[in-house]
Amino acid sequence: MRSGAERRGSSAAAPPGSPPTGRARPAGPDAPPAPPPPAAGQPRARDTGDARAQPRPLFPWSKWKKRMGSSMSAATARRPVFDDKEDVNLDHFQILRAIGKGSFGKVCIVQKRDTEKMYAMKYVSKRQCIERGEVRNVFRELEILQEIEHVFLVNLWYSFQDEEDMFMVVDLLPGGDLRYHLQQNVQFSEDTVRLYVCETALALDYLRSQHIIHRDVKPDNILLDERGHAHLTDFNIATIIKDGERATALAGTKPYMAPEIFQSFVNGGTGYSFEVDWWSVGVMAYELLRGWRPYDIHSGNTAESLVQLFSTVSVQYVPTWSKEMVALLRKLLTVNPKHRVSSLQDMQAAPALADVLWTELSEKKVEPGFVPNKGRLHCDPTFELEEMILESRPLHKKKKRLAKNRSRDSSRDSSQSENDYLQDCLDAIQQDFVIFNREKLKRSQDPTSEPLPAPEPGEGAEALADGEGARSALRVCGAICPSAGSG
Questions:
Q1: How many CA atoms, within 13 angstroms, populate the side-chain half-sphere of residue 153?
Q2: Whose CA is closest to 183, among 62, 292, 283?
Q3: Sign of torsion, CA 253 258 263 264?
Q4: C-alpha to C-alpha distance for 109 and 381, rounded to whole angstroms
């Protein structure tokens, strides 16, 4: 999970219409773009996973899964059974390996001990959230994720906390994010990009029905499953707007932010709405096809300079792209949001998508053109080394560390606290955090399942709470730990 400040930071992108230099692509949404396609007659990386474009596997993903599966199957008879009244916690999961990190959050693969299902688990440091003013954003993300579920989203299954961290257990998407594949110099075909655009369009259409603007659609936030289908993730700067409302905050990753966001910030006015996400889809689609983005935008660009840029610079399209694809990109990258393609209905009417079987696509019956290599884990392998060697507070040693801290804290006079403000914030988070268990929620909604015991006050009521609990937590925690909100 990345902070709002991190996702706004970027380095120089290649100028429109000119190829970048060099092949190395450092991590991050604003890394230098990929090189242009090779000249005719030269070998080319294809989106079918050409071995010539893929580096040697850094992690034996398939062997690891097979080994883990066999070892877990042998232990099936003795796998634990947890009390259904008990809130889910870290002890319910086996930590397998680290796969990613942000400025104050990390992601690892876990397996739930009783069901043996595998998930990705994000965990964020409470202390660092407070210090960076990100508590409100984390609570808002949890509020949103607990209320939504869609086939093309990365869905939340559990949320819980301990003294140090807040945890979110979500779908495991082992195919990696599109940024990673761009960095591996994969060149995506029009058909593959068209599929990603359609699957993201279905996700955005669902979010609109829930009054949610994502505000951070980009290759980093599109994860692929094992079959190659796209899933939208990271709701850290998403916002909820009701009918007639408009958002006004300067939020997002600059190279993917729509012109009206900067115009609203510079000139005031009525703000912006759902159309901003569709502009981001256009920027992402262009980048996947060409290897760099349509506008030369840096983190250091002022909002005023970007307003000027959008009014004077024209996007350059590749002559070899199909007319239908160029027409779709033009409609997505229309500066005036009133004339932009900005709904599922608009997308379905586009000539480039005329032959899309939307019902089959929504059921994942359309086969992707690019399937991630199942023989490797699509992430930076150094995350695991850093967690095991460099991390001063590794997750696998948390239980012993917390027990030691509790023993030390019980012997210390609470009035001698070095930072009463920080402790007040930690106490507020501990009190207002909403525990969530989608597995339990689904069982309670299934008429064929056994009825759940009546929840104890303050336990199951939290697990099955609707958005009101999270909204209350936002108000209380915001009063103690102020954070830059995003409207």
A1: 21
A2: 292
A3: negative
A4: 13
In 3D, which of 71, 58, 120, 78 has the Cα closest to residue 95?
Answer: 120
E strand or H helix at 67: helix 61-74
pLDDT at 123: 93
pLDDT at residue 378, as a whole number: 77
432 strand-pairing partners: none
110 phi and psi angles, rounded to 5 deg: -130, 160
The 3-state DSSP class for residue 336 equals: coil
Q: What is the pLDDT of residue 28?
A: 53
pLDDT at 2: 45
Distance of alpha carbon 368 from alpha carbon 47, whole angstroms: 10
Instruction: Give residue 322's pLDDT.
Output: 97
| Catalytic site includes residue 216 | yes
Task: Confirm or deny that 122 is annotated as ligand binding.
Answer: yes
- Confidence (pLDDT) at 39: 45
pLDDT at 443: 87
Distance CA 179, CA 279 (A): 18
In the chain, which stretches have pLDDT less than 50?
Answer: 1-15, 17-27, 34-35, 38-46, 48-58, 75, 390, 414-416, 451-480, 482-486
Q: Is 437 helix (H, G, I), strand (E, B) or coil?
A: strand
Domains of the chain: 28-35+178-362 (1.10.510.10), 80-115+117-172+381-480 (3.30.200.20)
Q: What is the CA radius of gyration of the chain?
A: 23
- Of 220, 227, 224, give the one whose Cα is nearest residue 293: 220
CA 303 to each of CA 253, 254, 257, 261, 308: distance values in angstroms, whole numbers, following the listed order: 12, 9, 11, 9, 9
Token pair for residue 413?
């006079």
Q: How far apart are CA 305 and CA 263, in angstroms?
A: 10
Q: Which of 30, 87, 177, 216 is catalytic?
A: 216
DSSP letter for 233, please. -
Residue 354 exposed, middle or buried by CB count within 10 Å (0-12, 13-18, 19+) = exposed
- Residue 446 dihedral angles phi and psi, to the nearest 5°: -90, 115
pLDDT value of position 242: 87
Strands, E assignment, 31-152: 93-101, 105-112, 118-125
Count CB neighbours of 469 within 10 A: 21
